[in-house]
Predict the 3D structure of the following.
Amino acid sequence: RLLPGQTSLGIVGVVVPPREKREQRLEERNMGVTCVSQMPLAEGKSVQQTVEMLTRKLELLGAEKQGTFCVDCETYHTAASAMGNPAQPGKLMYVMHSSEYPLSCFALFENGPCLITDTNFDVLMIKLKGFFQNAKANKIESRGTRYQFCDFLVKIGTVTMGPSARGISVEVEYCPCVVANDCWNLMTEFMQSFMGSHTPGIPSVFGTKHDSVYSPADTMIQYMELLNKIRKQQQVPSTGMR
C-alpha cells in the first residue's frame, strides 16, 4: 500500500520491499498544509547566529523542541547518450528524501510530475546511469531542529552544499488542516509572530490546489524550488557555523 499520490513502478531491477516494510510505510504520517520559505540573514549576522535568533523567538512563544529533520536533494540531468538531438537542451530530475518519510523517495521532474516511490529508487538511478547522470558536487540539504507549538510544526534548517552554509529554510505546517484555502490566514498570522517582515506570501503550489487535499509532494515541490533558488545564490558567510 502506498502513500497518497504514490506511484508503483513496475520496472525490472527494482526490488519489492518485504511486506513488513510496506506496512511500516503506513506509519509515515499524513502532512498538514505546509509553507516552505527562505529566511534572509539578519544584518551583520552569520547563518548560525540568525538560526539561533529564530529559534529563540520560537522558544519565547512557548514552542518545544521535537527532534531534528533533514531534507536533501540531488540533481540528475539527461545523459548525452540518451539525447536524440544533441542541440536539444537536457532535462533535469531532482531526487529528494525527507526524514519525515524515511521509507519514501521523491522524484521531481523539471516542469513535470512528482513521483513518490520506495527508497529503492536510488538503486534504480544507478541502473539508469545511461539515461540520467548525477550532477556531481551538486547535492544540497536542509538540516535542523523541529519545534511544536500548539497545532503548528516548525522546522528551522541550515541549508548546506558540501561544507558551505548557503542559507536558512523555514517550514511551517498547520497539522489539523489539509486544505490550503481553509487555513492560510491563520498560518500567516502565526508566521508573523516570529518571522516579522520576512513572512512569506502564499506559495505558488497552493495556486493549483484550490480546495483539493494537500499532500507531502506539495511540500517537496516547495523545497525543490527553495533549494534551487539558494543553490544559484552567492555563497553566504558561514562564520559561527558549528
